[in-house]
Amino acid sequence: MTDIASASSTSAVRETWTRYGRVQMERGYMPAVPERVRWGFWDGVGPGAEVLGPIRGRRVLDIGSGPGHHAVHFAREHGALVDAVELSGTQHQRAASHFGDEPGVRFVHADVVDHLRTTEPYDAAYGICTFGCLDPHHVLPALRDGLRNDAPLVFSALHTNMHGHGPSTTVAPRQEVILLKDQEPIPSPTWALTPQLWEDLLTGYGFHVEHSEVLRAPEADNPVAVHLVRARRRPVHRPRTTSRPRTAQPPRPHAAIGVGAIVLSEQGLLLGRHRRGTVELPGGTVETSDRSLEETAVRELREETGLVARPEDVRLLGTLLDHVGGVVRVTVGAVVTAWQGWPATQPNESVGDWQWWPLDRLPRQDLFECSAQILTAWRPDLPIDHAPAHFTPFAPNATAEEPRT
Fold first, then answer.
1. Is residue 221 classed as helix, strand or coil in its secondary structure?
2. How far is residue 386 from each of residues 120, 149, 254, 332, 344, measured CA to CA in Å?
3. 255 Cβ contact partners less than 8 Å away, ≥ 6 residues apart
4. Looking at the predicted structure, is the pLDDT value of residue 245 above 80?
5. Across 84-93, 99-108, 181-190, 329-338, least confident range
6. In whole angstroms, how far apart are CA 1 and each of 4, 156, 168, 199, 309?
7. Tens digits of per-residue pLDDT, 325-372?
8. Is residue 395 classed exposed, middle or buried when 0-12, 13-18 and 19+ CB atoms within 10 A define those classes?
């Protein structure tokens, strides 16, 4: 399918589920968090969460998360760290307003393909009755690139509709409808494909199908059936290039590197006061235990303020380079896009007395030089004076993101 056709189908799916979510919001309806996951429409039919395998402590992608109740189940009952990605704005709003503070779940309003281009690979992914609403040629390549080697992908999709119309042998959407009580049926483009066609598609896009079954309605006169698939991302093995140090001696120290974290809420920008009198962003130097600059930002934020974030909640802006007393100073600015908790002074830390400062009422003096450099790299329009530093962005036109607490 061409990019234009794929974009058209994505737009149609967004319109369908935006309308559906609006109706459910107007009704005030919110499904309960299930005690047991069902991959079809009926309790007690088919396997539960075990088909996804062990996911405790692992990053899991919920594809088309709807009102978010399944993501919450996997986080609460199975200890997963779930990114619940939803294309529809109204569906995302339902989830975020009801479960926005749920530990272990992050709600993301995006096309899952766009989201996978900007995030670290996931340990597992699932979609519950959502794959029938996705163009396979659009989503499967993105999942191949967005899952770790050998990661499981479990999904269910419509197999037979209420009229007994079975799956198609061609990869093309057909028009189905979503029925809601006392409402006009909502048209929905749907990919209902035969098990063999799903397997061919998955194989062609780098997956191995481990399990496939059709879940049927328990009522004998109900023709509706759902296809459940468990696949796995095939490992990619490439010849490896080795490396070695130039000498056995460690490099001569000649630079200092630190990270400053921008935490922006509806109340303003988070700043604290150092015991030496300067007002600063949360942050500090990179330690040998940090595996990435994102981890440095997360660690310093937790140690200094008590706020809890994840490395994937951190967006690096770029590097600021200057020289102080003959030492090269490298400062990395970072935007924290999601966190939990409330900032408070932490014992034995140099910075405390954390406050939210509106961007148009920042402190007029004593702003720490590195924090000032980061803030003007982030928002060049801020009226902040500081010593010059050369800024190299990690991404062009980096701008602030909406806060998510």
1. coil
2. 34, 46, 23, 16, 28
3. 327, 328, 329, 330
4. no
5. 181-190
6. 8, 22, 16, 18, 39
7. 888 999 999 999 999 999 999 999 999 999 999 999 999 999 999 999
8. exposed
* CA pair distance 145, 312, nearest whole angstrom: 17
Q: Is the pLDDT of residue 400 over 50?
A: no
pLDDT for residue 67: 97
Percent of the chain's residues with pLDDT above 90? 79
Query: Are 70 and 55 in contact, with CB atoms under 8 Å apart?
Result: no
Q: All domains of the chain, ordered by start, with CATH?
A: 3-233 (3.40.50.150), 255-393 (3.90.79.10)
Please tell me whether residue 250 adopts helix, strand or coil conformation: coil
Alpha-carbon distances of 283 from 161, 301, 333, rounded to whole Å: 55, 6, 9
Q: Rounded to whole angstroms, how far apart are CA atoms 54 and 50? A: 8
